[in-house]
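**User:**
If convenient, please work through this fold.
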Amino acid sequence: MPNDDPGFSYTPIVTVGQATTTATYYDEVRVPYSNLVGDLHGGWGLIASQLNHERVGLAAVSVLSFRTVRRCRRMGRNNQY
């Protein structure tokens, strides 16, 4: 939807690294039926599905981060800089 439509607003979210994201807000937004994604009033199901995909990605990043920290600790103990 165009970001200048009535009722739509967003604010930037500061993140670590180069990632950029925003929080979006919809207050009494009216969308033509032809622009709906999925079923009318079915937005929560769509976003819940997407959040599950993001959780899998975050889990993978967490495992890699844990391995990196563990390796750094081991190198520090052995003075292997």
